[in-house]
Design a protein that fits this description.
The protein is an alpha+beta fold and about 210 residues long. It is built from six helices and ten strands. The protein has a domain at about 25-165: Peptide Methionine Sulfoxide Reductase, Chain A (2-Layer Sandwich).
Length: about 210
């Protein structure tokens, strides 16, 4: 009985420590790659990614919204376990899922809000991103125009943007009165995202069908 009690007490004491250790393994990466619905969908399928949040990054205006996020890029905050996937691998995946030779936007979405950007949280991420970008540039055989910028700001997008690609509510779109998830798939295909990434990267492309 005493042995059982000691075991229970130790388990109770060590439980918070285990929780802290698990929390300590979570790191953050932020990527802008055109439509944040698509970037979120891509990273949700990467092993080691624990959470994705669509939002607006890099701007200076307070409380950016979908209707007013001038100076920001649509971006995704990626939480990941570095014991499962490295930051460098996430950068490599990101580069191979975007049009890295297009500096005017991404796919059918044009303008500064939709350009691709790697936002680094510290010097270690900056170095890893620069190395991954150089390796990707060599593999591609073309100059990659995706900039690497120091992180400044990130604001969560509106609730209806989060996990948009999974939504089951019906929405009215140019494709008709259809489920949100179906509207997303139709948009992604019409925008030519995956087709362009495959054209650019060949077998190295990372798409939803990867």
């Amino acid at each position: 009985m005493r042995k059982l009690l000691i075991t229970f007490v130790l388990a109770f004491i060590l439980m918070p420590l285990a929780a802290l250790q698990a929390q300590a393994k979570s790191e953050t990466a932020i990527f802008a790659g055109g439509c944040f619905w698509c970037v979120e969908s891509n990273f949700d399928k990467v092993k080691g990614v624990t959470e994705t949040i669509s939002g607006y990054a890099g701007g200076t205006i307070k409380n950016p919204t979908y209707r007013n996020h001038v100076g920001n890029q649509e971006a995704v905050k990626v939480s990941f376990d570095p014991d499962v996937v490295s930051y460098a691998d996430l950068v490599a995946t990101f580069l191979r899922s975007t049009d890295v030779v297009d500096g005017g936007g991404q796919f059918c979405d044009r303008g500064d809000a939709y350009i691709s950007v790697i936002f680094t949280m510290d010097d270690a991420q900056k170095q890893a991103a620069e190395t991954a970008k150089a390796e990707a540039e060599k593999a591609l055989g073309q100059k990659i125009v995706t900039p690497i910028r120091a992180f400044t700001t990130f604001a969560d997008a509106e609730a209806y943007h989060q996990n948009y690609y999974l939504g089951q509510n019906r929405v009215f779109t140019r494709f008709g009165w259809i489920k949100q998830a179906d509207a997303y798939e139709d948009y992604r295909q019409a925008c030519g995202r995956d087709a362009r990434v495959k054209e650019l990267w060949g077998k190295a492309a990372y798409t939803t069908g990867h």
